[in-house]
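Per-record layout

source: Streptomyces prasinosporus
name: Alpha/beta hydrolase
length: 244
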Amino acid sequence: MFHRSRSPKPTVVLVHGAFADSTSWNDVARELLDEGHPVVAAANPLRGLSSDAAYVREVLAGIEGPVVLVGHSYGGSVITAAAVGADNVRALVYVAAFIPDKGESALDLAARFPGSSLGEALHPVPVTLPGGAPGVEFTIDRARFPHQFAADVPEGVARLMAVTQRPVTGAALEEPAPEPGWRTLPSWAVVATEDLNIPATAQRYMAERAGAQVTEVQASHAAAVSHPREVTRVVTAAAASVKA
């Protein structure tokens, strides 16, 4: 069944990244709804890049009309892949996100530029992957989460985010990206200048390579939580470029 909207504005699909869930978009979603945008917050499985992208593509297939696809962190890798073959996607927005080219993984990109302290904050747990293969999934140590992920978010909110964070598999972070959607779609990017997960230098490099329109915000990795209005402005700028 299609998600139908009577709004003349495109639907905004929000895709969270690792160590987060869809509630990380709450304030951005509220602002978008107030502006008349239909909004869908997709629950990113965080199991593997190709399977995560396939799931988001299924979400997109259930939406009638044009879509602005927004990704945070590892969600940027997911939307880059999911947009390919999704004919209703008209624009991509990256928020403190990975913007991979073909063959690159999130792990590759994270290691390419200095400045990330994420590795030392991760807590690994062995898991069984789909199909029965052994694997590992990661969370951020709860005591380190507020500083590492959300240093500019009120402490009480950051502590709750640490509790509700969703783990990501190592396989998802290591899987090479397919042909990227940004080659054929206009892109926007919010660069979080105080990000301790994906350094701002890495974000700038990826955004410029993708030809994205860049907005810099003095924010932690949790830019959508700490600076929802700034993030919303970028999303609405992307939406304004979409013709019905």
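summary: The chain has a mean pLDDT of 95. The beta strands are 11-15, 39-42, 67-73, 89-97, 122-128, 134-140, 168-169, 187-192, 213-217.
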